[in-house]
């Protein structure tokens, strides 16, 4: 079972919760804290570091040198999915310190075999997230220098459009959703279309931001 490495903050069924807790023992605590902060049960949650930030909708993206052609292809597919919303604008290139950027990367991480008691094996398919830099006062700015990565140790599970869309979603500020139809559900469901909740969360992040 392919799962994102970031602990899911929403309460799921007990089966999924137990599986994710095997990856991150703090999952239940994180879930309880995030539930208190949720303002809407319909929209996909927003990463806490992005909440309340005024971010430009434009991002410049580039690939690390070791990203293979196949990984680049799924990342580019993910970029197209988000660009088609018209909410964000992702363009190839290098950003300045004051501009939003996304670095696409790959890494290789083997998961432990775990117990031989017939339980489902968890495979980490990738990870990603935002990193906010901010300057206040004269020439103030807020920028997101984000990353999105795929775990190429398991290419058949990780080098997938659905996984790349999920990790790019984290980079743009989306957090895990409890909706199985959302691209931000923490266990890969093969979703390649943004749900209504995903779109709503993106709008809440970027509609109040700079439109450039």
Automatic annotation (TrEMBL):
Does the UniProt entry include the keyword Magnesium?
no
Q: Which GO terms describe its molecular function?
A: metallopeptidase activity
Which SUPFAM superfamilies does the UniProt entry name for this protein? Metalloproteases ('zincins'), catalytic domain
Q: Which UniProt keywords apply?
A: Hydrolase, Metal-binding, Metalloprotease, Protease, Zinc
Q: Name one Pfam family in it.
A: Peptidase_M10
The record's InterPro entries line, in alphabetical order, gives:
MetalloPept_cat_dom_sf (IPR024079), Pept_M10_metallopeptidase (IPR001818), Peptidase_Metallo (IPR006026)
Name of the protein this chain belongs to: Matrixin family metalloprotease
